[in-house]
Amino acid sequence: MELLLNSIRSYIPLSIEDEKVVRQLFRKKELNKGDHLLEAGNICRYLAFIETGLVRYYINQDGDEKTNYFNKEGEFVCDYQSFLPKIPSFVNIQALEDTVMDVISFDDLQQFYKEVKYGERFGRLGIEQVFLNVINQVGSMYTDSPDIRYQKFITNFSDIGQRIPQYYIASYVGIKPQSLSRIRKRIAGLH
C-alpha cells in the first residue's frame, strides 16, 4: 500500500491519521491475466489503484474490440462515467497481466473525502487529470494520423509498450495490426 500512499501524497499531504483512514478504506484485489475488473453492462463499483500489473480499457463495437486506454502500476483505474452516477458501463477493463490493486468503493471514497483532511482536493485534482487525458485522447483520434497516434502511444506508454500485445496497440491507434507493422517499419527507417 506504500505505492498508493505515495501516489496520494503526490497530490496532497497525509498525516498519520489520514494514512490510517486510507489503510482502512482501501482493500486488496487481485486479478489474473485475462480477468475483468469491469465488464460492459455492469456498474463500475470501484476506484482501483494498481500496485503491480497492467490493464486495458476496451469497448465492443460491431463485434470488434476497440482498445481505448491502458493503465499500469502506480495509476488509478476506473470508469468514472459509470462509477460516479452508478449507471451501467459501456467499457470493459481487463487485466493484461496478473494484477494486484488497492480498491475503494463509491461509499468508502465519500468517507475518504470527509475524513482525510485534503481528501476532496485529492478527488478534484485526480479527476482533472483524468479529464485532460480523455480530452487529449479524443482530440487525437479526430485530428492525428495513425502515424502520429502511434508516436504518441510510444511517448505516453514508453515504459509498457513491450508488455502490450501488438494487436491491442493497433486497436488503440485505430488501425489493423498489418498497418501497425508498416508504421513501425517506417518509423524504424527514420532512426
Key descriptive features of the protein:
single chain, 191 residues, alpha+beta, Jelly Rolls, 4-stranded antiparallel sheet, 8 helices, 8 strands, 47% helix, elongated
Give a summary of the structure in a few sentences.
With 191 residues, this protein is an alpha+beta fold. The protein contains 8 helices and 8 strands, in the order H-H-E-E-E-E-E-E-H-E-E-H-H-H-H-H.
Your description of this structure?
With 191 residues, the chain is of the alpha+beta class. The protein has a domain at 2-119: Jelly Rolls, CATH 2.60.120. 47% of the residues lie in helices and 24% in strands. It is built from eight helices and eight strands, in the order ααββββββαββααααα. It has helices at residues 2-9, 16-25, 80-83, 106-115, 119-143, 146-156, 166-173, 177-190, and strands at 27-31, 36-38, 46-52, 54-61, 64-72, 76-77, 92-95, 99-105. The strands form two sheets. Strands 1-8-3-6 form a four-stranded antiparallel sheet. A hairpin with a 2-residue loop joins strand 4 (54-61) and strand 5. Helix 2 runs antiparallel to helix 4 (106-115), helix 4 (106-115) packs across helix 5 and helix 6 crosses helix 7 (166-173). The longest helix is centred in the last third of the chain and has 25 residues, at 119-143. The mean pLDDT is 92.
